[in-house]
Amino acid sequence: MHEMAIAEGILDIALTHARDNDAQRIERIHLLLGELSGVETEALTLAFRTLVRGTMAETAALTWTRIPLAGRCHDCGKERALRPQDYLCPDCGGGMEFTHGREMRVDYIEME
């Protein structure tokens, strides 16, 4: 379950920022998760809840925003929403480059 490793990374980032800012408690950790990130949010939440016990993030809410898949054509430059199987531009047949939808990062941390 790679969600445990992801949860460990998220908690490490949050605790580091909290210590660096003399925070007493972490209230919320908000993530950006792309459609293709492969993160199973239910498993991530379970792993996170297990890891935060006894830390300053014990009562922190773990929230996220899903980022839809989007891309740009290498040939005509048009940008559009994509499906994972869309590799060719429907306008000119050029190759599509994914520009959004692979994100997996901490967006912000609310601390007290």
UniProtKB/TrEMBL annotation:
InterPro entries: HypA/HybF
Sequence positions that bind Ni(2+): H2
Amino acids binding Zn(2+): C73, C76, C89, C92
Keyword annotations from UniProtKB, A to Z: Metal-binding, Nickel, Zinc
Cross-referenced Gene3D superfamilies: 3.30.2320.80
Molecular function GO labels: nickel cation binding; zinc ion binding
GO BP terms in the entry: protein maturation
Pfam families: HypA
Family statement drawn from the similarity comment of this UniProt entry: Belongs to the HypA/HybF family.
NCBIfam families: hypA
Function: Involved in the maturation of [NiFe] hydrogenases. Required for nickel insertion into the metal center of the hydrogenase.
Protein name, entry field: Hydrogenase maturation factor HypA
Top-level taxonomy: Bacteria, Bacillati, Bacillota, Negativicutes, Selenomonadales
UniProt gene name: hypA
